[in-house]
Amino acid sequence: MLKGKTALITGSTSGIGLATAHVLAEQGINLVLHGLMTEENGINLANEFATKYKIKTLFDNANLMESDAIGKFINRALKVMGTIDILVNNAGIQHTEGVDTFPESKWNAILTINLTAAFHTIQKSLPGMRKNKWGRIINIASVHGLVASKNKAAYCAAKHGIIGLTKVVALECAELGITANAICPGWVDTPLINDQISAIANNDGLDFEQAKYNLVTAKQPLPEMMDPRQIGEFILFLCTDSARSITGSSLPMDGAWTAQ
Ligand code: NAD
Fold first, then answer.
1. Residue 1's pLDDT band (boundaries 50, 70, 90)?
2. Do 193 and 75 share a structural domain?
């Protein structure tokens, strides 16, 4: 059912986005790969996917800080691929610091990349989905879209915000065959959290693995990091017809973090 559809995944040069790209490509889904990578490396990555999975691919390194660049990126994707059936808003950044000293530049960057960029990609992708009477919008929020942690003012604001955006899009598209959902992961083993692990290692005099374990178990009852591929497989399920009634939902994959 999904073979031949096209998915655009922001931030698919690393971590959750890259793992999701592999999961979708295995099903014959064509891919728009995207992330902060040189044009040369990005084209190589796209070619590797095309050869390995026998799918059509495109790479773009649009900087999500710039709304004009996002517009050009989506228009290019539509022109080259013909359609965007599945939109995964995944790209994100983090900065941890108390609210008193949280730098305005970091606040603006986190809100722009983790939230505003998704508004732009959704706005540009929706007309095609409406025309096809089919679409899947999956926003990678976080457990921090549901609850807060100290030192994450901008991240929590952006992630709570993207859950609100997801709900509105779901309401506006409910009768059009388009679903919009947010996934709320706990800890996932990706480069995004390395700075937080290193900070614990430095402050507490621990090795990286022990610091990682301490970070995970501080709030998450399941004492392990998720493999990013698990999120890709959940995204794949949300794309199937069986999931057509799941829309407007914020779906935790958090090792019981928010059950407490
Ligand atoms: P990652 O650092 O491995 O990947 C981030 C991706 O975003 C990269 O491809 C990077 O190039 C891209 N990106 C960053 N800034 C960009 C910009 N200005 N323009 C274009 N692309 C940009 O991170 P990840 O852990 O895979 O994170 C993916 C998503 O999952 C993020 O939204 C993150 O908030 C969310 N998340 C992660 C975790 C976790 O524990 N890792 C937990 C919950 C939610």
1. confident
2. no
